[in-house]
Amino acid sequence: NLNCLNSSKKGAATLRSEQAVTEEEMILNSLSLCYHNKLILAPMVRIGTLPMRLLALDYGADIVYCEELIDLKMIQCKRVVNEVLSTVDFVAPDDRVVFRTCEREHNRVVFQMGTSDAERALAVARLVENDVAGIDVNMGCPKEYSTKGGMGAALLSDPDKIEKILSTLVKGTRRPVTCKIRILPSLEDTLSLVKRIERTGIAAIAVHGRKREERPQHPVSCEVIRAIADTLSIPVIANGGSHDHIQQYSDIEDFRQATAASSVMVARAAMWNPSIFLKEGLRPLEEVMQKYIRYAVQYDNHYTNTKYCLCQMLREQLESPQGRLLHAAQSSREICEAFGLGAFYEETTQELDAQRTKLSARTSEETGEPAEDTSGVIKMAVKFDRRAYPAQITPKMCLLEWCRREKLAQPVYETVQRPVDRLFSSIVTVAEQKYQSTLWDKSKKLAEQAAAIVCLRSQGLPEGRLGEESPSLHKRKREAPDQDPGGPRAQELAQPGELCKKPFVALGSSEESPLEGW
């Protein structure tokens, strides 16, 4: 990276008289990541999650950007080391993983944020800086969800705010800072803006060669990117060439030369087939998709995100038999089966479950929990995964229906929270027999569902999983054919947590986490 270091020193020396950032600060923020002569996976909403980033690295990308993540959402997150997946997770208060990364990409992943406030931006940068290689600010997204909060392309009309955000980040974080912009209506205004941006001390600037109002069908302005590259001392990363220029690996270099940029950032061409980065040429789509699915399962990617990314790869093949299977899939298991990876899914999930059980047992030993008298409690190492069940069916509902049919007292749940890590465990009592999962869970609701699963499985009863029949639930629906689907009874079934009263023993205060996102 000697060329990168020399370039950074040159840029700092050139700008020393014009900016408050010192040469030492420039080097500190540029040493860990070089932006010269790089192939880069662009930040793409819903696409740039961990499986896609790892796949791009496999195929030759040098740097990968995560999808844009909003500062207000990130500052609520807690950093969690996930020992089961060997990842670092940034988890929202509702237990949803907002950003997941791993050691494999540690020196090559750039965290892109959406922000309109310098202090919030710095708070997010400091939260993630030990787990990423660089920090980027999105200043080019033209979509309303970004611009309505003053973020994305909305920042282009407020150079003062741009300067404040970038200067604050450069001075306040130990990682190189970059930004991604679109071009302005006039070349003069564009060059004036990028020179002001360079003076903040950022390590590089990515330029999408279209105006804010332009879309992919509009031609990319290679000549404007070239003018920016000729004007600035820092690396310029060219973006926006997928539609007109980049269909194969050799096209990436052609686009770089056409723009005189230091590096090229690829978006949609990489979304369609991440092997675009492979020097030897594109790999067959079936092979690429299977490799993506394996990463998705190994890193517990939510099936809806996996499905979305695969649909972008299939494109015109969505009406093929395999495309129809993918469209119908409602779980990671079904996606794997559609691509002939059913055995891989079963093997991988069993390994992950075994690892969870092992870690749970170790945690119990390390926390020094009292040895309770658990005689008579039937235990299994299970967890409730919302993704494995239909929208309005849960194990607790199945158990309650079974008790009603058998004329038994309704189940009673006793739930405790462990103060040391704020996890929950629940015991359900049915017909004077107690059932409990040995795995602790993130919320009271999840723990109760796990206890219900133990009871149902020990009795050999259906628990409502996708593909299972639950006669009692279906029977109740048939008995009331004229019932309004949106009526009170339907709402009751949709909220299993309200079906029965149960005691909750609080060993530590915590808000319940909803199941959304699981």
Task: Please describe what this structure looks like.
- This protein is α/β, with parallel strands linked by helices and 518 residues long.
- The protein contains 20 helices and 17 strands.
- An eight-stranded parallel barrel has the order 1-2-7-8-9-10-11-12, surrounded by six helices. The chain has a five-stranded mixed beta sheet with strand order 13-16-15-14-17. A three-stranded antiparallel beta sheet has the order 4-5-6, with no helix packed on it.
- Helix 15 packs antiparallel against helix 16 (342-366) and helix 17 packs across helix 18 (444-458).
Question: What proportion strand?
Answer: 15-25%
Count of separate DSSP helical elements: 20
| Total number of strands | 17
Label the overall shape: elongated
Distance between the termini: 42 Å
Q: Helical residue percent?
A: 25-40%
CA gyration radius, whole angstroms: 26 Å
Alpha-beta classification: alpha/beta
With strands numbered from the N-terminus, the spatial order across the biggest sheet is 1-2-7-8-9-10-11-12
Mean pLDDT, rounded to whole units? Answer: 84
Largest sheet: 8 strands, parallel, barrel
Low-confidence stretches: 5-31, 367-373, 474-518
List the helices and strands and how they pair.
Elements (H helix, E strand, L loop, with lengths): L1 H14 L7 H6 L10 E3 L8 H9 L4 E3 L3 E2 H4 L3 E5 L4 E5 L5 E6 L6 E6 L3 H11 L5 E6 L4 H4 L11 H14 L4 E6 L4 H12 L5 E5 L13 H10 L4 E4 L9 H11 L3 E4 L1 H5 L12 H14 L4 H12 L6 H8 L3 H7 L3 H25 L10 E4 L14 H11 L6 E7 L4 E8 L2 E5 L6 H15 L12 H8 L9 H6 L10 E2 L13
Parallel strand pairs: 1-2, 1-12, 2-7, 3-7, 7-8, 8-9, 9-10, 10-11, 11-12, 13-16, 14-17
Antiparallel strand pairs: 4-5, 5-6, 14-15, 15-16
Helix pairs in contact: 3-12, 5-7, 8-9, 12-13, 15-16, 17-18
